[in-house]
Amino acid sequence: MPSVTIPGLGGTISIAELSLAVIAVAFAIAVIVLLPVLVQVRRTASRAERLLTSVDGQLPGLIQDVRAMVFKIDRTTDSLRDLSKSLERFERFVNTAVDTVEKTRDTARQMAREFILPSMANAAGVLALIREGAELIRPKRERERGRGQ
Known about the structure:
By secondary structure, the protein is mainly α. It contains two helices and two strands, in the order E-E-H-H.
């Protein structure tokens, strides 16, 4: 087996022994370097476990609150839908009332045009006829006296 002489050690070491020593030193360095990493991983795992325990304890209450909020939103949505339907009915009622008022106004105008205005004209004619007839019947003296005053 081949061997290597290392000055200062006072002997010879085989290549296998030297390789084994290098591997052992590399492993020791790796363990020294990885030891803080493993400690940090352990701390992180511990924190994660505490966080998950906390979340597990609070999750049912959170789910219950979300369900209550969804229920309230559903009720509000139903109320808004009912309000919208009521407003639509009110709009139809107002439109019907406006149409009725407009038709009543048109009917009143038509009645005024067809019945009231001709009747007033006839009444004015009759009144003028009565006044003229009264003027003819009244004695002339009274007519002259009425002019002189």
